[in-house]
Each structure stands twice: as C-alpha cells, then as structure tokens.
Amino acid sequence: MTDSAQHGGETPLYPIREVSRLTGVNSVTLRAWERRYGLIQPRRTPKGHRLYAREDIERVEQILQWLNRGVPVSQVRELLDRPAVEPEAPPPDPSDWPAQRERLVAAVEALDLARLETLYTQSLALYPVATCVTELWAPALRELEERWGDERLGNALQRHTLEAFLRTRIGTRLYHAEARASGPVLLAMPLPEDPGTLWLQLATLLAGEHGLRVRLFDAPLPLGELPLAVERLGGAGVLLAGSHAGRTDLMRRQLPRLAELLEVPLGLCGPVARIREGELEASGVAVLGDDLDEAISRLQTLLPPS
After folding, report:
1. Is pTM, for the whole model, over 0.90?
2. SS3 at position 84
3. Phi and psi for 299 in degrees, rounded to 5?
4. ∠ CA 170-176-177, rounded to 5°
C-alpha cells in the first residue's frame, strides 16, 4: 500500500503508519483513541486496514492540542463534538495529571510493580510520549528525587526498582523503534558518578520517538573512550544526562575538553544542565536543559541528517 491512496478517485486516504509519521502519534495510541474513546473513525479496506482522510488527520491534531492543554483524554470527545458556532469554553479542570502523578509516586514508594506497569502502559497508550514525559514522568521524578534526598532507609531501593522497571520497558520500546528509525545514531549514557539513570532513560525514550537510533549505555564510559565509541559505533552525537550538579572539575574542565576532542555534538540534559548552565555556556558542550522533550528537539537540530 502506498503512503496515500485514492478512494473512489476523490479524497486521498492515508494508512496508519503515514498518519503516525505526519502527526507524531504512534499507531498504538491512534488505535486506542478509536477503540476506547471513539475520537476518530477511520475508513477500512476490505481486509480491515485503517485508512484516514485529511479531516481525520486534522482531528488528530485537534486532539493533541487539547491534550497539550492538560485535558484528560476521556474529556476530549465532548470538546471536539461541540458545534463550531459555540464560543470556545475553557478546558475542563486538568486534574487528571496531578492525580496520575500522585498515583505514580505512591506506586514507586510502595514498590508496587503491578501498579507501575498499569500506569506506564496506559499513559503511553493514550497520550503522546512527549506529553507523558512532560506531564507525568518528569514531574513525578522531580518529586521523588526531593524525597530521596534525605537518604532514608528504602530510598535507594525505590530508585533502583524504578530504574530496573524503566530500563526493561524503555529498552524494549527502543528495540522495536529501531526497525522504523531513520535518524542518526545517538550514543547516550549517564554522567560519571551520577546516582542514577532515570533522567537518561526518559531522554532516550523521547529520542527514540524523534526517530533517532539510540545506543544506550547503563553506566558511564571512561571519557577518554568516547571518541573511540563515536568512531566504532557510528555515533552522530553524544548525550549525557544527570540528576545532580556533578563534580566541579568534570563540568569546568573535563566536559569542555571532551567537546573539543569529539567530532560530533556533545549534549547535556537533566537537572545537571539547569544547575551548571552558566558554567558551561561558553564551552563546546550543548547545554540542553531539563525539559527533556525540548532538550531532544534542540539536540536533533545539531545532528547531521541521516
């Protein structure tokens, strides 16, 4: 089937993979919006394959606009189906995200893996990855890291449990995304001596959705081996992520020196990028901030086309 098909010689129709490419919404989410909420109703071929008209694509874009304003997906259909002449009302109280964040934090603290699985699966099935990370996972992680700062008994267990959970799920997602990815190769790893990989994992989840081919390292490589890694693995860029300020000598000397040695962009994201932004501003390190979706978008502009 081609990227678009003619229906009765008139309106072009698009298969689900093309709609996913045009809108950035993966096919699993598109099917969930259709089956669970009736938000879109594509046509079907005689074999049952979905075909979307241009108005369906515009409707998907409208859905995204409401979701990005914080409206729960369960309330979007009512807003979409309002008569066009009706003046626009303010969106419903977006209390769904705070409630989901509260449930996520509680699940981590209780080490409730079944609940974590449900929250992870449902959020990514119903919302774009960028929305899930921005509205749910990153804010919950900030709250958890504040609680973990007092080093109470059990905090390390919570962190490592969440890391292991996300490592498996995100690793699987990146593996399947590799088959359809066409972007350049990105080498991603935590900063030396950083206490965890959670910010890195969320960043790579977004990088995979942006079409980058991610090579994820769970532990930091010696900085002296990064040029070799870039050469041998065909890396078009390197992404480092961290949750705390990092060593002063690492930030002021080692990373700027590494950026000079590498022939590809070196990006830094996560809380460390916000904390150390002023010190690295004049260096060759691309300081991408802790808004992870924006960070990946900024990094992507620095990478060469695939």
Report:
1. no
2. coil
3. -65, -40
4. 85
